[in-house]
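ESCALATION

Customer reports they have been waiting on this structure for their group meeting. Please prioritize. Original submission:
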Amino acid sequence: MPSYRGRERESALNALAGGVPVHPSSPRTTPGPLQRATAAHEAWLRTSAEGELCLYLSECFGSATPLAEQLGGLQIIAAVVNSAADDDDISGPSVLITNLANCLRVPLSSTEPSVLAAATLAFGRLARVGAAAEPVVAELRRALGRLSAGSKLDSATLVVREVALAAPSLLYVHVAAIFGSIWPAFRDARAAVRQSAAEALDAVLQIVAERPSAARGGWYAAARGEALTALRSGSAEAVHGGLLAAAALLSGGTPYDGKAPLRAASGACVERERAEGRGECR
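Update from on-call: job pushed to the front of the queue and completed.
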């Protein structure tokens, strides 16, 4: 029998389809011809309602769409995803979940900070739904492609962070690609991008720390090398990114033996910046 949340969701979808009520058949009786026809009609109504909803959402994120409407569409996606996450009936691939993930592709690459933030929140909720594994991995791969190309680094680092926090098992197989491509984000001119890169790195390092691997030492060494190079550079943005990367590597949850050089380089950087009266390293 559908859960209470599942019945709520069916009622909402029926309202979108025209207000026809749904009365789930009792599992205690063998359905007759009328019950089978009714069930088929109800399934059609749900499919139709979900299609109408996804069509509306797909039109919310055009270049000429007002900001308020874009944010409203993202709130709808987050609400439907929350309902789906509580629905016991959704255990495998879902057309609705896949369509919602497709709707998020445009706002996840938005240059409007408020839209990107709301889309990231909705995507993080989506990543926690088991039925969303395939579209979540597809979005993660797109993010890794953007990292490699140095394009839309704000979106890419946020997607990596959300997948790492919500679905670590999905992210783990992509750890090597992340360590090979995330570093340009630490040198980005935008402080927000450097911060989101650090949050993504911290979440990835926690996953690595919990899964012993022969490759782990190499990943740590590569990250240390990138952080030290940044700390010794003359660019304020790179130094700030290096400090953020070093902080992630020096966190208590990282079983890493090469922390002494990072501490020394970080301390020297901070002292140098203080002596010169600049605030980038603070």
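Sent to customer with the following note: The mean pLDDT is 78.
Escalation resolved.
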